[in-house]
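Subject: for your reference before the review

Hello V.,

The reviewers asked for a structural picture of the protein, and I figured it would be easier to keep everything in one thread rather than splitting it across files. Below is the amino acid sequence we used in the manuscript, unchanged from the supplementary table.
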Amino acid sequence: MELTIKNPTNPKMEQTGNFLVDSGASFTVVPHNLVDDLRLRPQFKRHFTLADGKTVEREIGNASIKYGNEEIVTPVVLGKKGDNPLLGAITLESFGLLLDPFKRKLYKSTMML
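And here is what came back from the structure prediction:
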């Protein structure tokens, strides 16, 4: 899915890229080249377990993400070289979207308060 990523402290800095929807990933992963181009800055670090059981540490920062007519600021993993661009569950749910993995489609979800 195509997303526009912006630096929330400098909205004129933006890049568009294709992201794989991964509802099993908590955070959206912004690839290393976009992190550099947009000058996204880390706020803290977290450890993550990969599908193969390996544990990695990644920096977390904030990015403004635009999908369709909506734009939100959300925490994202600042990817390292080799990390794939992923749209994670936190961002997906923030947009009010739900993934049907069998049909490989996104739907508007019913939001709970």
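For the response letter, the relevant points are probably these. The chain has one domain: 2-108. The chain has a mean pLDDT of 93.

Happy to draft the paragraph if you're swamped.

O.
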